[in-house]
Amino acid sequence: MQLLGIVLVCYSSRGHQYVFGYPTNPSYKSAATLPSPKVPPINLINSINYSDNNFQVQSDSYTSTFSENYGSQQHNLSQSNQLFPSQQISGSYKRVSEMNLKMKSSKDKIRNSYKTDNNIIMNKKDLNRELNLKPNLINKMKETSIPNKNMQFTTNNKLNNTNEISNYRNHNNNLHNNNIQPPNRLKKTNSSHSTHTSIINEGRNNTNSTNNHHNQQEKFLGYDTQFLADILSPKSALCDQKFQLTINNLTFVGHPTLINSDSTHQKNSILNRYLKKKFEKNMNNISSNSNSSNNNINQYNIITKSDKINNTRYAHLMSSSPTSSHYNSIDTDSAGSDEEETNKKMFSKKDATNLTMFHVVFIIKPSDEKSFDNEIEKLYKNVILKLSHGLQHEQRYRSYVMQQIDLILSLKDESYEDSSQLMDCILHQSSLAHDLATVYDALISNKIAHIVINNSVDLSLQIPPSLPSFEDNDEIILSEEQILNNDASFPTLRPYHALLLLEDPEEIFKSFPKDPSPTLVELIQVVTPMQCFEELQSILDCSLSHIYKLAAHLVYWRKARIIDVISIRNVYVISPNANLDILPELCKDFENHFPGTDLLSIFSELSIPRPFSSVIPSKDQRTLYLEIITYFLRHNLVTQLHMYIYLSISQEIKKRTIYSQSSTENEEFSSSDNSSIILNPSETSDIENEWIKMLASTQSPAESALFLRLLPYFTGKYHVEEIIFRENLTRKDLKIILSKFRNELITILHQ
Amino acid sequence: MDLFQGFPKIHAIFFSEFHPIQGPKVTYAIPDGFIYSSSSSTNSNTQIPLFCKEETLDFDAISEYVIPKPELCNRLVIIGTTKYKVMGYPVSIENPKYKRNALIFNLCFVFDNHADSSSYEQIVTKMAFILKSLEIESNFLYNSATKKSLQNIIEQLLEDLNSYSECQIPINEINSINLKLFPKYPNPEEVHDYQVPVSIINLNNISDKYWDLTARRIIPYINGVYPIKRIAEIADVDITLVKITVQHFLYYGCIKMVDIFQFSNIYYIKPSIRNLLKDEEMQIQCVEFVVKQGRIPPSFAKIFSLYCSLKHGLTIKEWIKENNVISYNIDVRRLILFGVIKGFLQRVHKYPILPNQYQNSLIEKSENEQFIKKYLNGSHHYDEICTKLSYSPKELDEVLKRYPGIKFIWK
């Protein structure tokens, strides 16, 4: 499964909107071996249907007509104050689409054609635009020059006669407020800075053209973003459930989330309007926590009474939102004005957007593999669902998603030199965008995304590691019954196992949520791979099962692995999965960790299976070498081999059994070599029992007793360490048995 | 290889189009009543519902994906609902004769939400193409008389594909619909020069004179001994063609790729050898396979213990000596082959590495040695280098001896 990108779309009073897509230029690696007919859209719609010429012309014409409609619509909607003559846009588009038909080849050429087209038209319409001055310009000025900002400040202060001072400190957040200002005021500002304005105007021309560009050109994975917004905003019947759409060979998975617009929102908006009126009548201390107020205008009184609660709630919202960190600098004295201003902000926003649905969509390249559906399901359950629910929660109680969407969209209305700069800016200012980017980056590198939505919902997201299959299990071989009983997808933990941290404790702590379990912290601090769980139990003074739970937790979150206790008796060989392609980097890293040692020499020592002690050159280097093997295990470079034991009854024993019994089944043993393997020594037939008895009787009574005791383990399911642990033996005991019965016991070394 | 688990069942097929007045609507659907429209006019309410509400499909919810915006047309579109998966290929034909200057239609197949419907993708696409060309050539959909026959066609499609996985429906004198479902396998892995193809089935028996020329040319040389490069040389076929052909065989599971058998090879046992112990049929197969022709076979237990004695660091040559393998009437090559094909034996490759500090220590004498050096970075094993440079492992050993500080990693 290949994750290509994450997109956020929403449905608000402005219609379907594409809010944000990450990464900026999703790279689509199409495997060369794949059959070509299904070659996906890569960069431009125009280039999609290259392979089948039948549809080439058609699709082009569709694209242009489509974007014509939607391009202009988008303008009208998203830049509601900018009155673009729609003719102009469609005109330019038409020309472009003509161009497209002529030269489908190079994207650059097309882009250029856009530029020139737009520029020509822009110049013609310059005058027109002067008259239609856009309030956005103000923001532009604020963004570009600091002195301007001060000027701005005063003008606005006069303008509104309200406590909006702090509002402008937070200017990044409040573009919509600015938009409300009457245009003639702005004109004044403009004229007072005539030199600036002209420059800015010029800049603005460019920006406009680039903006145009953006709207027209803004594509994600070859799809027009407005188109994406449309197809990814399903009807409500498909909302609040898993959404999966496959188009050619892109799969979109998400969980479209409705915001209860019908029940609370409408009433709230009535309430808001009412409250707003009151506010304008200079009623003091109105607060509208829209979501807490349930039904009625009558409740207004209750709200004012419960003002304090609301205050605190707002305080929390403000302090917790990283984008509005400016608020923190404001004195507590001005909290009241703060409050009002927040209300205002809320009102204006409510009026601007009434968010009814948002949808975080993960775009995946489908594969032919059978497990693909499973992987999608995993992604959906473990990442998408959690993320969507988290966002829904924050939206419900703090209108978080809506604020963030407004923020991102307003940032997009600004001008930026190129898309990467815009992306930087969005990622910097919008915590939601930042979170989505974090999730994407973590998922593609197969790591864990740790995000805190709106500083309150703490989420760790990952696609959980899957059960190591029987065959390429690194450490532990599960017996069938263990697999059957094991519905949790992780190997059984045994007291003789140890926990190998995959990162340094400090690193692990960094990724912890705010309130980790103290035992877990302690465990991470004390644990070493040379200690088994049993020993750990006494160090930590808690039950084994509790340690298991903590260990399983760490394994699930990929911070640790379960291994057998590292010891010099263990047999290690280079893992078949070791990635030797990165050997040069590995050598360097190894050199840094263990100066004076040579990775390659140790590697070549590990080619023969033998106890690790024989690799260690001298006794005083033992600790060093144990650390080295820990390093190897962490990096999956080596694997431990275990010895397993099978029981095979030789011809000789069988014959002896016959002689001693004067048996009835002579004929069976006619051929020269007829030893047989007892697959399950604990469930044997009568004759097999006889053989085993005979076999045991060949050795001294003590040894034969031990042999019979260990018999159930000679099935190839239990490795030596397991047998020793279960029967509480010493290695020496087992060694004796193995040597005494060496003709009948088949030993085998594998992982 | 995964066993093929049959094709998923089609729950329904429906034909939908953009009606000039009513907008997107379902014109024909089989089975009847499977699809309902939550907001549609009351004309369909008269019929008795054949399905309970949970089992039906709400057309309005998905209509924008069935009859989509033009940008989505002419692509395969699959949309999932809670219970079903709807696969369609919206087609739009522009022509002034239509009331809205374009005809948009879509023949959709409905599957279980979790069904693996990938083998139907071709069918759905093909049906869209067929209907499109029918419409363009003979106004099949424009003409209401012929359009009505679609109902029967859909019905037959559903029945035949579900019961026989194929269908043939004559439409008129010239045209007919021929469909057959093929299982979809994962793409085969890359094939390397040094790998040896081993046929699992008798390729000679199934091939005939209509087969691909390259395939017929190389089949005689797929004998479990020759590596790809050798096959290309002997059959006098370009090596890339050989690789492609072999990949095709791999795709259909006719062959498996193994290593070159050499007495200097090292193998180790994988835990899955337990499967061999449990499967008596495989044991008999194993004994028959590994015994030298016409000799008395050894017991399975002996073979098993021989397998078990293979391990890291032990070459086949040493292993034969240590275990006196020759006395058991066993064809060692076939013994190893059986293990590798069944997946419980794994080759340990030898990777020569020249550490950085020795990179420049050797004064190069021949060009060949310069050439060798780029393989000494740990990403290339003996088989690969030997095949590339046409050395035997022994010769390569000799050559590499001259490099001071060279290290070997077995993996």
UniProtKB/TrEMBL annotation, chain A:
The UniProt entry, under InterPro entries, shows: HTH_NPRL3, Npr3
- Subcellular location, record wording: Vacuole membrane
Which residues lie in Low complexity bias regions?
191-214
Q: Residues annotated as region Disordered?
A: 176-215, 318-344
Q: Name one GO biological process term.
A: TORC1 signaling
Q: How does it sit in the membrane?
A: Peripheral membrane protein
What the protein does?
Mediates inactivation of the TORC1 complex in response to amino acid starvation. Required for meiotic nuclear division.
Can you tell me which family this protein belongs to?
Answer: Belongs to the NPR3 family.
**UniProt-recorded name of the protein:** Nitrogen permease regulator 3
Tell me what organism the protein belongs to.
Answer: Piromyces finnis
UniProtKB/TrEMBL annotation, chain B:
Superkingdom per UniProt: Eukaryota
Read off the InterPro entries from this record. Answer: NPR2-like
Record GO terms (molecular function): GTPase activator activity
Q: Which Pfam families match?
A: NPR2
Q: Which GO terms describe its biological process?
A: negative regulation of TORC1 signaling; positive regulation of autophagy
GO CC, any one term: GATOR1 complex
To which protein family does this belong? Belongs to the NPR2 family.
Give the protein name, as stated in the record.
Nitrogen permease regulator 2
- Species source reads Piromyces finnis
